[in-house]
Every structure is written in C-alpha cells, then in structure tokens.
Design brief:
Shape of chain B: globular
Structural class of chain A: alpha/beta
CATH topology of chain A: Rossmann fold
Largest interface: A-B, 35 and 33 residues
CATH topology of chain B: Rossmann fold
Order of helices and strands of chain B: HHEHEHEHHEHEHE
Number of helices of chain A: 8
Oligomer: heterodimer
Number of domains of chain A: 1
Number of strands of chain A: 7
Number of helices of chain B: 8
Helix content of chain A: 25-40%
Distance between the termini of chain B: 11 Å
Largest sheet of chain A: 5 strands, parallel
Radius of gyration of chain B: 15 Å
Strand order of the largest sheet of chain B: 2-1-3-4-6-5
CATH architecture of chain A: 3-Layer(aba) Sandwich
Number of domains of chain B: 1
Mean pLDDT of chain B: 90
Radius of gyration of chain A: 16 Å
Distance between the termini of chain A: 37 Å
Mean pLDDT of chain A: 94
Strand content of chain B: 15-25%
Helix content of chain B: 40-55%
Chain lengths: ~200, ~180
C-alpha cells in the first residue's frame, strides 16, 4: 500500500491535457493539478457507484480527449457491471485508475465486502478490458505509469492505497473545493468548446 | 426491414415514430437497459446511424453515464423501465437533478392500465415516485401522443432538469 497523494504526484507529469475526474482523491489532487479547468473535482461528490459510468460517458462524448478517472473500490463494487459497458464500447481515451483502500473511508473505515481478497484487475480483464494492471508498491506504479498513459485505453489500473479515514458529519465534509459544481462543469465545457450553459448550483 | 415489424396497429405507439422524435430532438446517444416492450425500438435504434446505443446492466448507471455524455456536449436520452427507474432514485437525484442535467428519460410503464384495476405495484408507484422527486412527466400511449416527446425535450432544455416520458403502451403484436 502507498499514500494516495504520493501516487498522484507521480502520475501528474503524465497527465498532459487529460480531463481528470479524481473522485475521492479530489481533496489531494486539487493541490497537485496544474489544469483545474480540466478537473472534475466535484464536492460534495455525486452518488457513489456512478463515477465510472460518468467517465465512460465523457470519454465517448469527447473521443479526442484523454479522460482519467480515479475510481475507488467502494464505488466500483456498487456497479461492477459498468466494466462490461466500458469494455463493449472500448473508449480508447479512457484511463480507469481505481484506488483500493479496502474500506469505506468516509464512513469510518468499515471494510468493503471481501476487502483483502478481490483481484479487481482480473475482474476488469474478465469483463473485456484489453489491458489491466494491479500495483501494491509505489515503485512499480512509478515504473509503469508512463507506458500506461502512452498506450490507448481502455485500461484499468488497481492501486492499493493507505486508508485515509475521513469520518465527519455530512455538514463538515468538503471545504477543500472553492468552486461550485456549476462552475466546474461550465469551465470544463468551455475548455471543450461547448457553449450551451450548465446551471447547477 | 420486415413490414410487420415497422408498422404498429392503429391505436398503438409506433416505434418508427418514437425514433423520429429522437432524431428530431438531436439525440446522439441512447443509454438503455432493455425491457420486453422496447425490443422493436431497440432494433430500429441499432440500425440508425445517427444514434449510439449504450447498454447498461443496471438502470442507475444510465443517469451518471448520461451526465457524462451531456457534460461532454452530447444529447443523451435514457430508455429504461419503471422498475429500474425506481431502483435508480439516488442516481436520478444526485447525478441528473443536483447537476442540472437536461435529459429525457423514456420509461416503460409496466403494469399501466387506462381503465382497469392496476394490479402491478410497479405501475402503482411509478407516478408517485416521480411526484416525490418533483420530476415532470408526459404519458405517451399511442402514436398520436408522440409529440409529447418533443415537449419533454423542450422542457428539459428550458428547466435543466430531467423530464420523464411514460410509455403507457407495449410495442405488442409487431415486434417479432
């Protein structure tokens, strides 16, 4: 296992112009990213389970843009079937990283089902992803990230990260994101040359 | 294409007309989980080059996937059954409503009866569910109701909210 922030710092130089949907890593990524208008760092986060489907939709809509998702194992377990949908449409611009801390960190660290015994890369490959990896050591991730980002997607990358328990009442969560969700979506759409406004709050 | 498959009997909803409504409103992607009533529409969508049909394996995914498509500049439509819509409540809320996504969801109204006693709890709770979420909806039973689909698209675009079209008719008798 390794620290999420260390992994993100290793990833960052390979991001290029990619759109990044950092999920629960948003609170760390916001301090690392140099392209915030291309980050979908939504706080409060939208419902668990939909992150990979959102990234799939964005990748299919924008085939000329790389889309990087930092999913989590708790999210993915809620909707494993999305792996089959992604594999069927096989967006070459989708890079699906999954942070596996073996628990639900925002609710107190309770373990996810069968937390220590799931081979997510095997599941992704079985669902039809042409490439899937799993890394438990930061040095192995560091040695492979350039190659992963240089090749076409869809690719799945399971990463074992140290749990960072963030168990607070709902009203006390967040605060790291100063932009509203409306601003985030509007600025991303502007970056992509989409002129019709969004109007969420 | 088989003539028997493409022409609905009078008083029913012709899937060709539904497809025409999709094209008229610029739909680029249909995010979809099949039900028996929409099989003939599925065949038509698959054959339509301007549409990309994206299957999901659980309806809740349709809402986040459609959100991603819309953020990326496309015009998605969701095609699911009422049973799956009810399963998807939190995705409907947190993805499409909270993020103000103007999307039309076409919902097969399983159990709908116009005059008889509704015995299917899926139908009993469909409109109650939509009312609880404050989602406006339009009932489409026959081909003559199809313009309501355009009304739903116009309302979604104007309000930046999801709008439902309830399909109160099976595509029965001509879908192979």
């Amino acid at each position: 296992m390794f620290q999420m922030a260390e992994m993100l710092r290793i990833f960052a130089p390979y991001r290029g112009e990619a759109i990044v949907f950092p999920g629960h890593a948003g609170r760390e990524w916001i301090h690392i990213s140099t392209r915030p208008r291309r980050d979908v760092s939504l706080s409060p986060p939208p419902p668990m389970g939909g992150q990979a489907a959102f990234a799939c939709g964005l990748a299919l809509a924008q085939p000329g843009e790389k889309v990087v998702l930092f999913d989590s194992e708790g999210n993915l377990l809620m909707n494993l079937g999305i792996l089959a949908t992604i594999a069927q449409h096989a967006p070459k611009n989708l890079y699906h990283f999954m942070l596996d801390n073996e628990c639900y960190a925002t609710t107190g660290g309770q373990p996810v089902p069968n937390a220590k015994n799931i081979a997510y890369d095997v599941i992704a490959r079985g669902a039809g992803y042409p490439r899937a990896f799993a890394f438990e050591k930061l040095e192995d991730f560091s040695a492979n990230v350039a190659s992963i980002m240089a090749q076409p997607g869809p690719v799945f990358v399971a990463l074992k990260v140290v749990p960072e328990i963030d168990h607070k009442p709902v009203g006390q969560k967040g605060g790291w994101q100063k932009r509203t969700r409306a601003q985030i979506l509007q600025e991303l759409r502007a970056e992509l040359g989409i002129t019709a406004p969004s109007c969420t709050s | 294409m088989d003539q028997a498959m493409t022409q609905a009997p009078e008083g029913e909803l012709d899937p060709e007309i539904v497809l025409a409504e999709m094209k008229k409103n610029g739909v680029t992607h249909v995010v979809y989980l099949p039900d028996s009533e929409t099989n003939s529409l599925y065949r038509l969508m698959q054959a339509e080059p301007s549409l990309q049909v994206i299957p999901v394996s659980r309806e809740g995914m349709a809402f986040s996937l459609a959100t991603g498509l819309w953020v990326g500049g496309k015009t998605p439509m969701i095609l699911i059954q009422n049973t799956g819509m009810m399963e998807s409540g939190d995705s409907l809320r947190g993805w499409t409503m909270d993020l103000a996504i103007p999307v039309v969801m076409m919902v097969g109204y399983r159990g709908w009866t116009r005059h008889g006693v509704t015995r299917d709890s899926a139908a009993v709770f469909t409109e109650r569910f939509l009312n609880a979420f404050g989602i406006n909806y339009y009932l489409v039973e026959t081909s003559s109701d199809a313009p309501r689909i355009s009304t739903a698209f116009e309302e979604a675009a104007r309000t930046h909210r999801p709008v439902a079209v309830l399909v109160g008719d099976e595509y029965h008798g001509f879908n192979g």
